[in-house]
Design a protein that fits this description.
With 244 residues, the chain is α/β, with parallel strands linked by helices. The chain has helices at residues 51-70, 92-98, 152-159, 165-171, 200-204, 208-211, 214-222, 229-236; strands at residues 14-19, 31-36, 78-80, 87-88, 104-106, 110-114, 119-123, 134-137, 177-178, 184-188, 224-226. Helix content is 28%, strand content 18%. A hairpin with a 4-residue loop joins β6 (110-114) and β7. The longest helix has 20 residues, at 51-70. The chain is globular, with a radius of gyration of 18 Å.
């Protein structure tokens, strides 16, 4: 929430979708909560069931929650779905405000960050890696008036998957463009990650497939950036050494 609250333009609101009875901290200004009573996702942790079963259950669970939040903000001009363990650039709302008639954007350029680490890894296919990677004009979702009017297939494709909707919109004649700056940080290697994404070191430097290809290893090394004060201000809303 600190990251989202750090926007340079204040024309935004944040909606947190949480289960009934779930503990939430005191919400900052501009945030509100929508409570839901969906059944638990039995395949919540990767490794339970097949990968396809896991992804299908994830899309359904995430999509239902996203729809509940969107139906409580139908006056919004744009929507951006933000996973609870990621961080966003402080420049996003201003960019959207400057291009209010756009269809929306994919965040193709972002960073990966080890929880508590001092380095960022530049990733240039970010929208296929991280769910915090889409900004879409609200009317393009064609939201139903009531939750009950939405089919499960629509929920999974339009709201539960971050890799399907860009192609769907392009086929409708409403393509998304690439956000012209690094727009988000994907946090990995921390206890709250349901995807169990490996650490930067393991994924991009100590992976056997990388170690046997020195040129790839060197390319990855060039993508590393020291987590500096400007990054902390833009993405974390903090100036201390290790954002939380």
């Amino acid at each position: 929430m600190t990251s989202i609250s750090n926007q340079t333009n204040g024309d935004w609101r944040g909606i947190i979708v949480a289960n009934e009875g779930a503990d939430l901290p005191d919400l900052p200004e501009k945030f509100s909560a929508v409570r839901v009573t969906f059944p638990p996702n039995d395949l919540h942790e990767l490794g339970k069931g097949s990968k396809e079963d896991f992804l299908d259950a994830f899309r359904a669970d995430k999509g239902r929650r996203v729809l509940s939040g969107m139906l409580n903000a139908t006056d919004s001009r744009f929507f951006m779905i933000v996973d609870d363990d990621d961080f966003v650039s402080s420049r996003i709302v201003q960019h959207v405000s400057d291009h209010r008639d756009a269809n929306g954007w994919t965040i193709d350029h972002g960073y990966i960050w080890d929880d508590g680490g001092n380095f960022l890894f530049g990733h240039d296919d970010f929208s296929h890696l991280c769910g915090t990677s889409l900004i879409i004009r609200a009317d393009l979702y064609e939201l139903p008036e009531r939750f009950e009017d939405a089919s499960l297939d629509w929920i999974k494709s339009m709201l539960g998957s971050h890799v399907r909707i860009a192609n769907i919109l392009a086929q409708r004649g409403a393509p998304l463009t690439k956000l012209p700056f690094r727009g988000a940080v994907y946090r990995v290697a921390h206890g709250g990650s349901h995807s169990q994404a490996p650490s930067l070191l393991r994924q991009y430097f100590l992976n056997r497939g990388v170690l046997t290809k020195p040129r790839r290893w060197l390319r990855n090394l060039r993508k590393l950036r020291v987590l500096g004060e400007s990054h902390r201000r833009e993405f974390f809303g903090k100036t201390r050494s290790n954002p939380a």
